[in-house]
Amino acid sequence: MKPLNGIALKLVAVTLFIVMSALIKAASDTVPPGQAVFFRSFFAIPVILGWLVMRGEMSTGLKVASRMGHFWRGFVGTTAMGLMFAGLGLLPLPEVTALSYAAPLLVVVFAAMFLDEKVGVFRLGAVALGLVGVLVVLTPRLTTLGGPTVETAQAVGAVLVLLGAVCAALAQIYIRKLVQTEQTSAIVFYFSLTSTLLSLLTLPFGWVVPGGTETVYLVLAGLFGGLAQIFLTSAYRFADASVIAPFDYASMLFAIAIGYVIFDEVPTAQMLIGAALIVLAGIIIILRERQLGLQRGRAKAAKTPQG
Question: Which end of the chain has fewer CB atoms at under 10 Å, N or C?
């Protein structure tokens, strides 16, 4: 294990994902979310295939044991992506980033519901804290549902992003099932392939011929998204998940910086307070998962016969 390498790779991945989101947001005035999903997914495929060729995994990396498992992971993941992209067109980038942090909190709840994982009071308390943070971020938006058109659109955007977080959490549940039988490379590749095909179903609903600038933004979003996925996957080869997971929240700093410099977005104090509560809850859950993992490891070692 080389934890510093893992942390560096994770930070690169987080940065690329935020830049990808900024590119999608920049094109959102003219390009509908379904079309953005297509570009994001389609142009990630060559990057992923190139990665597999470099690793010599083309012959084995794309074999699957559960085709329907990949489909359902792709379906909910594509839905999450579309909802998030729709929200990016309506809300400031830092706010979308903050609300997306609800996904790992919901994973804890869904894991108890669908995977029969035992979730103690400690983690449930952390989830409750995080959901309070979500409400703090959401409240100003939901109180404007009956207001002017712009404010109503932002309220709708907040709801879309939150629904996207729910779908992203469900996608993580499917991934937890898939990793038991599937290679990581196959999960990454078939998600991009499935989301590319599913996004074509939105073709009759307002796709446009993007201008030159928007096309560049969208192609770069796909390339950066594919690269980010590779860096993220590689990070877990050098460090435990509990070590690098907290660095997900560095994306808030990048989102605030990009939002301010590129889109003239200044986060409100209430949004920052809510985001801080969500991040705190996420870190508490990560630390608790690490503690439980160490306890399970010690218990397993104690039961192993000594030779």
Answer: C
C-alpha R_g of the chain: 20
Cα–Cα distance between 254 and 141 in angstroms, integer? 23
Residue with tokens 């928007």: 214
Would you state the structure tokens that stand for residue 120, as one six-digit string? 């103690």
Give the separation between CA 197 and CA 37, rounded to whole angstroms.
10
Determine the Cα–Cα distance for residues 95 and 140; give it in Å rounded to an integer.
Answer: 12
Query: Is residue 240 within 8 Å of residue 234, measured between CB atoms?
Result: no
Q: How confident is the model at residue 307 (pLDDT cuts 50, 70, 90)?
A: very low
Burial of 36 (0-12, 13-18, 19+ CB in 10 A): buried
Gap between the terminal Cα atoms of the chain: 26
pLDDT of residue 123: 84
CB–CB of 63/183 below 8 Å?
yes
The pTM of the full predicted model, rounded to 2 decimals, is: 0.90
* 210-231 residue pLDDT tens: 999 999 999 999 999 999 988 9
